[in-house]
């Protein structure tokens, strides 16, 4: 049982009704002599059922072995409604520079920066009699054609079952196919000979199913506009017979224009000017709603529903660590790979390089192989290994130049230089031809506007950049030039995973440590680090790591110092412009520092949510001084006193419970805060705040004399802690790291660098 039985029976009956009516009204004498009553003519009934069943068996299920699908799934179960774009509105930009600006302003990883109106695919299929669907590899063109054909069968089934419900498969969706036509799927790669006739292929299909007089029936269907002709994969037609295929399709449409036609082609191969009557549309990349729906459709087994597998997968994909993986999910083929991987491990791998490498290999080799696409001979001479090296060089040089979009001329020159310089590359290969074949066959490089290209996914450019760095021993240069640059972060993680040999990433991590220490150069920062070591050393028990204790101590000291600064200024402007810049750097630094440990709640409590250092002093300073200056009623001022002391006590209790500082230091804090509370009546709100800050400063031996940290030092601190956080993430992404090397790095975190 496939679950399609209700649809097969209903669609076969609908098909029988359509043919009977058509033969009666328009059929030839030969056809009219036959008994078309499927209630009596069992052979004819079998032919109807076989036709519907063959379509469903071939196109109603999906199994994509190249993304590790071990078993077929019903198309209806996982299909996610696609969106189509009017191709004529896609190219707004005149240069790669304009694309670059638009991409940066979008704030997203996706290269799909168009704002063209999108329409549901089935809606467009209903509206357009002649439709050409364009898109890159794996975006779902063939699946969309299959789905429209399936919906046409569903419409045929409803044709003879109006007001009835012979199974859930006939229930209309929000948008359903409105035309009761007979679907015919033609895979155009079978046009491997110059004498293939589409009409003959259709007749052969009818003959295979057992229809009488298949040639006459085919002519009858076409002449009276009863077919939905699905022409899948124009780009898969061998180049030697492409002109014949185009002419054959054009002639068929001209001769039998009352039928409906939907064709598909990879956009890079659609260079002949297009079919005259056809509306050209492009498949839109999956958006969040579609990705989530696909995941929900994929994980709908009873056990998955019980444990909310789909929700957990979606939540993980949305986490900051997996934004690069989520970008791949915009392509249905690669989203399928992600779902299969998550289904197997209930997680995505920390070693992301393996996942991205597999995804790249799917487009480079496996997808074409699975679809049995014939490659042009000129391209076969460039081996897969050479091509990967060439793409890696292109990715690296562009990434170093901060160019995510690049001109066609630049690409051709890079390809030409690679072919000339590489002894194993065939020198006679034409660079422009190589670019075109990569674009058509694999879609790794995509033309985004006229003569302006990018990689299909930023994730692939990052992966290939990392490969080039590892293959060409550029790790030292990477660390020296880019350790603090945010857009290089994913490359660092991939390099760590790709690093070969025993202890793979050891050398890289040590180099990163050295570079991080270069930011701790001022005497003030060294003094602060030294103080943090002293006041946290030996605190027991070890609830959190020693380096996180030192980091928290540093930021608490800085926050108290900032509070002193604010407390001495007016309530209208507690921070000057330089201080605002400092706070911006420190807020970011704190976020990286908290990531050094796993207990993020501790840091959020001590310093306020959203990495906002000013939260520590907001209750004590800003509101309190406002109360004083505005001379608010005494009971409100008393409330402010209580909030100041309550916040101070909460911080003290947390420091005690987590053993951030030595026990006797926190004990002194507790005692002195109690004295401040006893003498609260002797304080104004501002002097109370100063007294509380004095208690922290004295008992923790904070090494400041009311001198706020400078903007330069705040920037150095940001670079240091962002580098440390990246070191930890690279360690997690690496395949092999020597335990001794890592223990040494970890023990030296947030300590004074040795000379």
Automatic annotation (TrEMBL):
TM helices/strands, residue ranges: none
Record protein name field: Uncharacterized protein
Residues covered by the NACHT domain: 184-302
Organism for this UniProt entry: Phormidium tenue NIES-30
Gene3D superfamilies the record matches: P-loop containing nucleotide triphosphate hydrolases
Superkingdom of the organism of origin: Bacteria
Xref: InterPro entries: NACHT_NTPase, NCH2, P-loop_NTPase
PANTHER family per record: SLR5058 PROTEIN
């Amino acid at each position: 049982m496939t679950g399609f039985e209700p649809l097969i029976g209903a669609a076969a009956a609908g098909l029988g009704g359509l043919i009977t009516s058509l033969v009666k009204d328009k059929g030839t004498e030969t056809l009219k002599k036959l008994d078309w009553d499927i209630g009596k003519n069992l052979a004819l009934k079998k032919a109807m059922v076989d036709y519907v069943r063959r379509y469903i068996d071939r196109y109603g299920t999906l199994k994509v072995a190249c993304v590790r699908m071990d078993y077929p799934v019903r198309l209806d179960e996982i299909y996610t409604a696609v969106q189509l774009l009017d191709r004529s509105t896609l190219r707004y930009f005149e240069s790669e520079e304009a694309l670059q600006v638009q991409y940066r302003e979008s704030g997203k990883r996706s290269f799909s920066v168009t704002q063209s109106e999108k329409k549901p695919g089935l809606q467009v299929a209903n509206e357009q009699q002649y439709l050409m669907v364009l898109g890159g590899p794996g975006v779902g063109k063939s699946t969309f054609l299959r789905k429209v054909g399936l919906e046409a069968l569903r419409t045929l089934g409803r044709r003879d079952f109006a007001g009835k419900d012979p199974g859930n498969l006939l229930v209309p969706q929000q948008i359903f196919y409105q035309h009761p036509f007979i679907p015919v799927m033609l895979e155009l790669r079978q046009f491997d000979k110059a004498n293939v006739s589409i009409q003959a292929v259709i007749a052969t299909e009818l003959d295979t199913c057992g229809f009488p007089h298949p040639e006459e029936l085919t002519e009858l269907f076409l002449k009276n506009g009863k077919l939905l002709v699905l022409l899948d994969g124009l780009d898969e037609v061998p180049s030697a017979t492409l002109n014949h295929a185009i002419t054959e399709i054009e002639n068929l449409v001209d001769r039998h224009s009352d039928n409906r036609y939907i064709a598909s082609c990879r956009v890079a191969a659609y260079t002949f000017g297009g079919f005259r009557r056809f509306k050209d549309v492009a498949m839109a990349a999956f958006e969040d709603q579609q990705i989530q729906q696909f995941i929900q459709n994929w994980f709908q087994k009873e056990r998955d529903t019980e444990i909310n597998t789909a929700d957990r997968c979606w939540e993980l994909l949305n986490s900051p660590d997996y934004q690069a993986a989520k970008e791949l999910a915009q392509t249905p083929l690669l989203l399928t790979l992600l779902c299969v991987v998550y289904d197997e491990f209930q997680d995505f791998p920390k070693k992301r390089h393996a996942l991205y490498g597999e995804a790249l290999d799917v487009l480079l080799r496996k997808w074409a192989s699975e679809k049995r696409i014939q490659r042009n001979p000129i391209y076969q001479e460039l081996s897969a290994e050479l091509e990967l090296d060439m793409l890696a060089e292109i990715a690296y040089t562009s990434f170093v130049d901060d160019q995510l979009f690049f001109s066609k001329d630049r690409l051709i020159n890079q390809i030409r230089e690679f072919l000339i310089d590489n002894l194993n590359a065939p020198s006679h290969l034409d660079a422009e031809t190589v670019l075109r074949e990569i674009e058509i066959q694999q879609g790794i490089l995509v033309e985004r506007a006229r003569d302006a290209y990018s990689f299909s996914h930023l994730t692939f450019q990052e992966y290939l950049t990392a490969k080039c760095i590892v293959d060409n021993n550029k790790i030292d240069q990477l660390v020296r030039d880019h350790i603090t640059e945010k857009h290089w972060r994913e490359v660092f993680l991939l390099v760590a995973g790709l690093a070969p040999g025993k202890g793979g990433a050891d050398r890289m991590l040590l180099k990163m440590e050295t570079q991080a220490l270069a930011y701790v150069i001022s005497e003030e920062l060294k003094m602060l680090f030294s103080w943090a070591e002293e006041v946290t050393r030996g605190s027991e028990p070890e609830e959190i790591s020693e380096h996180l204790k030192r980091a928290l101590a540093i930021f608490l000291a800085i926050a108290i110092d900032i509070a002193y600064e604010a407390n001495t200024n007016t309530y209208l402007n507690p921070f000057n412009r330089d201080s605002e810049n400092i706070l911006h750097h420190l807020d970011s630094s704190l976020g990286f520092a908290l990531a050094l440990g796993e207990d993020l709640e501790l840091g959020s409590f001590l310093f306020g949510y959203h990495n906002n250092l000013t939260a520590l002093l907001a209750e004590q300073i800003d509101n309190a001084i406002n109360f004083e200056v505005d001379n608010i009623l005494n009971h409100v001022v008393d409330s402010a006193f209580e909030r100041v002391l309550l916040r101070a006590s909460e911080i003290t209790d947390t420091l005690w419970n987590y053993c951030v500082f030595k026990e006797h230091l926190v004990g002194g804090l507790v005692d002195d805060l109690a004295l401040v509370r006893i003498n609260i009546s002797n304080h104004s709100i501002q002097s109370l705040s100063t007294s509380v800050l004095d208690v922290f400063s004295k008992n923790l031996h904070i090494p400041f004399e009311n001198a706020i940290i400078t903007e330069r030092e705040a920037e150095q601190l940001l670079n240091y802690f962002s580098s440390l956080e990246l070191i930890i993430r690279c360690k997690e992404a690496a395949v092999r790291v020597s335990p001794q090397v890592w223990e040494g790095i970890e023990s030296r975190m947030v300590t004074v660098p040795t000379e």
